[in-house]
Amino acid sequence: MSTEIQSIGVLTSGGDAPGMNAAVRAVVRSGLSQGLRVLGIERGYAGLLNEELHEMKSSDVSDIIQRGGTVLYTARCMEFMTEEGQKEGARICRKYGIDGIVVIGGDGSYRGAGKLSKQGINTIGVPGTIDLDIASTEYTIGFDTAINTAMDAIDKIRDTSSSHERCSVIEVMGRSAGYIAITCGIATGSDDILLPEVYDGDEQTIIDHVLQNRKVGKKHHLVINAEGIGHSATLARHIEEATGVETRATILGYLQRGGSPTCRDRFMASLMGSAAVDLLLQGKSNRVVGVSNGKIVDYDLDEALKMQKTMPEDWVRVSQLLLRK
Ligand code: ADP
Ligand code: F6P
């Protein structure tokens, strides 16, 4: 163990994601087990600036691994976008004797961590977002729970859609990425999957598809629409007007962010939270933890933020091949 690192902090930032609690628990327990003092920082960077810090004992993270949300709360903080805010954050870290911080969040939170490391505080990022839109990792904490929650909701909508012989447009989250949409779309056998990465705004193709499905006797028609495309109610209206098939829009919204994390989210959060502490103990800073080829890896934070992520072509191809003809 490095002699320099004695106290670490942990915060959650940006949108909450199921499994963040498992990551917090992993940081706290892994740190304490290796002789560190661990401080929980509430409400992300906003809480850091407001000095909402408290020392955490092992028992403070008991009974949270199965809970959705984040016990440390989360926030978005404009003040931390400024250099003065970042300097103040570093000053507060020094005041509390914090040598390093684990930041659990999305790439916005990573940017904040990068700024803090430039102010001399060691930082390690852990990917926490339901969107799976962080380029430096194959896996983000919360994605698995979100897709299972959305899949369950879509299955339920399918029941009522079939009973009424309706078309349903179902909007899923994902910010500007379509990973939730493609995964749930394939897993629910949906008829059209609209991805921000691919969709060209051609509603006529969807309308033709609804009509063709009616001809072959299909009782329902499910369109999964990604949040990055939006306008689900308008699309539903256009489909109904053009086809005469009753069409309803459902925006799944925040229910996708809540709920008890799946086994995969808890497991991966535990591994990644623990890996972040190991990096701090090795004296590393300005790095992010991720998954590559199924293994836990870490990258330089600035390099990670430059990486690009693209929708796998085979996912899109398979979604087309599996449609009923
Ligand atoms: P996410 O981490 O889920 O991508 P945001 O993009 O909202 O969420 O970022 C979370 C917080 O991280 C912001 O509210 C802000 O406090 C901090 N942050 C984001 N970008 C920067 C930046 N360029 N510099 C400093 N802090 C940032
Ligand atoms: O990043 C997670 C996410 O739920 C996105 O899917 C969505 O675009 C965004 O957060 C919504 O953010 P807010 O909580 O600010 O409404």
Account of the protein in words:
The chain folds into two domains: 7-142 and 261-306, 3-Layer(aba) Sandwich (Rossmann fold); 147-257, Rossmann fold (3-Layer(aba) Sandwich). The N and C termini lie far apart (61 Å). Helix 5 crosses helix 6, helix 6 packs parallel to helix 11 (313-321) and helix 7 packs across helix 8 (232-243). It is elongated and about 70 Å long. The mean pLDDT is 96. The chain has eleven helices and eleven strands. The longest helix has 21 residues, at 143-163. Strand 4, helix 4 and strand 5 form a beta-alpha-beta unit. The strands form two sheets. A seven-stranded mixed β-sheet has the order 3-2-1-4-5-10-11, sandwiched between helices. Helices cover 41% and strands 18% of the residues. It has 325 residues and is an alpha/beta fold.
- Strand line-up in the sheet with most strands: 3-2-1-4-5-10-11
Shape: elongated
Mean pLDDT over all positions: 96
- Total domains: 2
Number of helices: 11
CATH topology of the largest domain: Rossmann fold
SSE topology string: EHEHEHEHEHEHEHEHEHEEHH
Helical residue percent?
Answer: 40-55%
* Ligands (ions, cofactors included): adenosine-5'-diphosphate, 6-O-phosphono-beta-D-fructofuranose
CATH class of the largest domain: Alpha Beta
Query: How many beta-strand elements?
Result: 11
